[in-house]
Amino acid sequence: MDKSVYNFCAGPAMLPVDVMAQAQREFVNFAGLGVSVMELSHRGKEYMAVAAEAEKDLRELMQVPDNYKVLFMHGGGRGQFAAVPMNLLGGANLKADYLLSGNWSQAALAEAKKYGDIQAVEGVIKGDDGSFSLVAAPQFRADAAYVHYCPNETIEGVEMFDLPQTGGVPLVADMSSTILSRPVDVSQFGIIYAGAQKNIGPSGLSVVLVRDDLLGKARPDTPGIFDYQVTADNDSMFNTPPTYSWYLAGLVFKWIKAQGGLQAMEARNLEKASFLYDYIDASDFYSNKVAKNCRSRMNVPFQLKDAALDAAFLAESKEAGLLALKGHRIVGGMRASLYNAMPLEGVKALVAFMERFAKQHA
């Protein structure tokens, strides 16, 4: 791929070049209809075919069991922070446990507290030096309606590869930064949700996989637009869905299938992350403070040995065509997001720049 600019943004993240090229070709004339896909009625047969094919491809990629609904919804990941408790805490059991591993699980907890008896369970140990490691065996209430966790925290760069052991309590996962990066066993989850802007497509869309037995439990005051049962009954078209984002998501699903599916994505992502982490670990100029057993493959935070050089690093990396490397304000330093669309060549370009910068400022 001939590319001189690489976008390391944590989201909205880069899209596959082939997907953007196809979308560009079809932008004003979709399928020979003479109109854009954005102009098609979401209830017309042409767009219904687009929507149905996207769902079919996602089901195939993730091997979604038949007893799960696949929903395409509004509001991104934050919308689901509210939708999950509204849909699962509508009966007598108002208890839910939230495993805290970083900023996004904390945000989900804060939203859920509006709707029930929500317990925080610490999942990460933060050292005085800013390091992160996992709690070995977090404990959950046996009578909770569900347990929520975020397997990948984009800000801290912490990823959980083992499932929390909930003793049969339904497990809900915010997979916004994990989905489609590696295979997961969907049958181990009650609900998987994901904002689209990492590995799926443009921001605003969210994808929800929900097990059938968890439908129909919503609080009476749940807005119809966030009610999983209503959404499922209307094939995700209770109102006009984000049609262009859904269409682009479908193109991304096909692109992933063409790359070899989720096993191939995992191998590529592991290679990219290992290449960058190995360089950082061998350097005395850069450092990463996350324990090796929970380092994110998608989001790699790193620090320079002298924070006074951060501004120069960001300015010079931008000039080199390496974009959006500034770390989140909570943890500082730098962050490189390596979602599916980031090629290995982009990571190699980043490491080559880091080497040059370190030599110049040693």
Span between termini: 33 Å
CATH fold category name of the largest domain: Aspartate Aminotransferase, domain 2
**Which runs of at least 5 residues are low in confidence (pLDDT < 50)?**
none
Structural class: alpha/beta
Summarize the structure.
Catalyzes the reversible conversion of 3-phosphohydroxypyruvate to phosphoserine and of 3-hydroxy-2-oxo-4-phosphonooxybutanoate to phosphohydroxythreonine. This protein has 362 residues and is α/β, with parallel strands linked by helices.
Q: How would you sum up this structure, described in words?
A:
With 362 residues, the chain is of the alpha/beta class. It folds into two domains: 19-258, 3-Layer(aba) Sandwich (Aspartate Aminotransferase, domain 2), CATH 3.40.640; 260-360, Aspartate Aminotransferase, domain 1. The protein is built from nine helices and 16 strands. The chain has helices at 17-26, 45-62, 76-88, 103-112, 228-233, 243-259, 261-282, 310-319, 344-360; strands spanning 6-7, 68-74, 95-100, 117-122, 124-126, 132-134, 146-149, 152-153, 158-159, 171-174, 191-195, 205-211, 286-287, 299-304, 322-323, 334-337.
What keywords describe this structure?
Aspartate Aminotransferase, domain 1, three-stranded antiparallel beta sheet, 34% helix, amino-acid biosynthesis, 9 helices, Aspartate Aminotransferase, domain 2, 362 residues, single chain
